[in-house]
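User: Hey, quick favor. My workstation is busy. Could you predict this chain's structure for me?
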Amino acid sequence: MWERLTAPDKTVFKTPLFLISFWLPVVLSIIMFGLIAASDGLTLSIMGGSEAYSLMVERMKVPLIVLSLSVPLSGLVISNHRSMQLVKTIQGQERKRMYDLYYDHQKELCITLGRVIETEGWVYIEKEDLPLIHRSVYRHNVDQKNDSFPSSKTVIKALESFVEQSNSYLGSQEKEISRHITKDNFESALDAIAVTFEVLVSNINRLRAFILVRPLESSEKYVNILKAICELDILKGWLREDIVEEYRTTFDESRLNELLIKVAEYSGFSPTDLDKGCLIAAMQLKSFRENAS
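Assistant: No problem, here it is.
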């Protein structure tokens, strides 16, 4: 309601509040003039001289006071309107300053992590993903007017939880897969492998609720799924405020490589080619050989 009356986007003389403050005293004074003149039977004679004007001033003091309020009230509205426009201008400048800081911060992160992506040969997180990742982690600082641009605690916590859960899950699944392989339960081993990587893909995709990364399909090559987890772990280290070397990577990459090699040897495919389709093909081939024999 107040916004409609003040209308800071319009010129002051077109705002409803200015028109009310100026014309309301005028209209009220005219009405009062008319009522007093009618009740006392007065007529205004321009040629009546000083006596006529003295009588008008004496009888019309209240209407004249009301009429005189038009100028100061209008002045207050004009002053208030200028103050509102000044505040709005300052707020706009502050918001522009925060966005300048935001994009400078984004540019620095994209250059730094872009170099990491090129050097390390990342396959899941690409340079084109970095602006969206930056938005997920740092965009809240613009609204909060935080010049230091700390990373989002919610996003960092989600990444840390994801890495811990992946570590724990892979550890338990590795034992389960090894047990099936040792007992030569071919189908059970391949089923356990397929389930393991489907769960990993699902966990990565659930992470997108916190950070804007590329979705993965369950048909993705297994080596790329494992690399995606490693890259997210390294990304977590770069996004933390307290970047310390020992916190950069907490994911057990050697365990991944061992698991991948073990699965590849058992299924008969190269570790770099292994995916869900390979497991299905291995199971079909196993079934064909058993039927043929």
